[in-house]
Write a structure and sequence with these properties.
The chain is an all-alpha fold. It has 15 helices and no strands. The radius of gyration is 30 Å and the shape is globular.
Length: about 375
């Protein structure tokens, strides 16, 4: 072969794809696009059928639930399968660049659709009339802040905030410490029993306490536990949830939420206490510190992060408390809270504008707590 001649059977470097940089695969890319369009179209139609034609599912909640799980989980799996085909169909360098965004953006889009968009709409509706047909400026906010019921609800919410998170954390720590002193079997039984209320819904817990503990019966025989104990001690049976004096009825409602959340606090705080290095505890004992001093000066500072996490979690829950109040008093007898007031304004009074304004106020109250929680979580990660 002379110089300048080329073997016709050998490709030139310019005609060969670079190693590790495959060419664009239009077939795989196209199948992925068509698959995603088909999956999204099918899922939207099925979910729309839930609301428009529930009779298609034989009006069976079980069938609707099964279909929702199959369509939701199965649809997500198929969606990301085709999305993966699209990403793999791209050239290697572009595929690596696009991959993180391809898998994150659907989730962010769903969050935006389900959370951010409704938030913006709610803020907009808070400046509109009761039917959200015309803007009325700050009229809804002026009405709310001048309304006695809202002021009463605000005070009640403040009491819930001051009492429930603090008591939950204190009782959670006490139960965690006491349960750890038991044998292994006893500790498991005690913690399982205390954690059990976490499996009960707020509505279910309210029904249990309302019928078994706070119930008032006309006559001598009292079926409610609190009245049975009270009358045995010589007192007169009371309609406990109708006694606003000293906010007694509100505090009795708080007991239910504390009962529900103590198990959650106990599990996290118990894990944190077990994670305290034994060396520091033994060193304190050698130095002559009492058990109380060890707990207050050694253990508590080292589980401070977990205490703050539990406190803030319960605090956010308290800001949104609704079910307990709605089921047992519906805000009567001076027990109303902001979330229940919103529900009544929207569904009982048909005042969408005022209800939206209440939600915006609640959102503004929660936002600083959320910001602090995020900063605290990041600080904990950095220190870990």
């Amino acid at each position: 072969m002379t110089v300048g001649q080329r073997d016709s059977g050998t490709a030139t470097p310019e005609s060969q794809p670079l190693a590790g940089v495959p060419r664009f695969n239009p077939v795989r890319f196209g199948v992925g696009v068509v698959g995603i369009v088909a999956v999204v179209w099918l899922m939207l139609n099925i979910f729309l059928a839930f609301g428009i034609r529930p009779d298609l599912f034989l009006d069976s909640k079980l069938i609707i639930g099964v279909v929702a799980v199959v369509v939701g989980v199965g649809g997500a799996v198929v969606f990301f399968y085709f999305l993966n085909m699209i990403v793999e169909g791209l050239p290697d360098r572009l595929s690596r660049t696009v991959m993180p965004y391809a898998y994150i953006l659907p989730g962010l889009g769903l969050v935006g659709l389900m959370l951010i968009y409704p938030t913006i709409q709610t803020i907009q509706f808070s400046f509109a009339d009761k039917r959200s047909e015309r803007y009325v400026g700050f009229e809804n906010y002026r009405y709310i802040f001048s309304n006695d019921e809202f002021q009463q609800s605000l005070i009640n919410n403040l009491l819930w905030l001051l009492i429930v998170p603090a008591v939950t954390v204190v009782v959670g720590i006490a139960v965690a410490v006491l349960a750890d002193k038991l044998s292994t079997r006893g500790e498991k039984v005690a913690k399982s029993t205390i954690f059990l209320p976490m499996a009960i819904s707020f509505v279910g817990a309210s029904t249990i306490w309302g019928t078994l503990v706070y119930d008032y019966s006309v006559g001598e025989k009292q079926t409610g536990l609190l009245n049975a104990v009270w009358t045995t001690l010589g007192g007169t049976a009371q309609t406990w949830l109708q006694i606003p004096t000293g906010r007694l009825n509100s505090m009795l409602l708080m007991v239910i939420l504390i009962w529900l959340q103590v198990g959650f606090a106990m599990i996290l705080l118990s894990s944190a206490i077990k994670g305290v290095p034994e060396d520091t505890v033994e060193a304190a004992r050698i130095d002559g510190a009492s058990e109380v001093q060890i707990f207050a000066r050694i253990v508590i500072p080292q589980i401070k992060g977990t205490i703050i996490t539990v406190f803030i979690t319960v605090l956010i829950l308290v800001l949104k408390v609704f079910d307990i109040v709605y089921v047992l008093t519906n805000g009567r007898f001076e027990t109303n809270v902001i979330a229940n007031l919103f529900f009544n304004e929207l569904f009982a009074n048909g005042q969408a504008g005022r209800a939206s304004a209440i939600v915006v106020i609640l959102l503004l109250a929660i936002t600083p707590v959320l910001i602090y929680q995020v900063r605290h979580f990041r600080a904990e990660e950095q220190n870990a």
